[in-house]
Amino acid sequence: MTAFLIRRIGFAFVTLFAVLTLVFVIVRIVPGDPAQVILGDQASREAIEAMHERLGLNKPIVTQYAEFLGNAVRGDWGVSMVSGRPVMSEVLNVLPWTIELTVVSLVIGIVLGVPLGVWAAVRRNRFFDYAARIASLLGLSFPAFVSAIILLFLFAIEVHWFPVISARSGSLSAWTQSITLPAINLGLISAAYITRVTRSAMLEVLSED
Fold this sequence. Notes:
Number of helices: 8
Number of strands: 0
Strand content: under 5%
Radius of gyration: 23 Å
Order of helices and strands: HHHHHHHH
Distance between the termini: 21 Å
C-alpha cells in the first residue's frame, strides 16, 4: 500500500509538470495575441504593449517558461479570464469537493480491491483468480474518461438516477447523488490496482507458509 501511494504521488507530480508544460506551449502557439484577447479589439497599441510587459510576453521564451513554472510552484497562477478572480482562489473554491471525491473513491477502491485480491490469491489459478486478474487488467487499461462517459450516459441520461452536472449542496441526499458516479468511476480504477497489489502481497505471504 505504501508503494502504491508513493507511485500515485510521484505520478501526480509528473502529470502536473506535463500539464503545466502543455498549457505553456498551447498558450504560445494558438493564433492571436493574449494581450489583445484580454484587452479586446479596441485596445490601443500602448495598452497592448503595457499588457505584454505585465505578462512578461516580451521576454525570451526560456525566461517566460522558467517564470511560469516558478509562479506555478509559488501558487501565483494569474487571473482567470472568465471570472476575473485569481486562479488560486478558483482552485481553492473547489478543493474541498476534490478532496471528498478522492477520499470516497479511495475507500471504494480499498473496500473492493482488498477482499478481491485476497480471495484471488487464495483461489490461485482457479476461475475466480483468472476473472479477478482480467477484470483488474481491464480496469487499469480502460481510460477513465471513457468509463465516466459510459456511466454518465447510462445512469444520468438514460435512467435519470443521478444528476448530469454535480452541484455542491448542504443536503446529504444531493451530496450523495452528486458524488456517487464520479466516485464509482475513480474507485473502480483504484480497486483494479489494489486488487493486483493485494493479490501479489498475499501470494508472497502464502508462499512463506
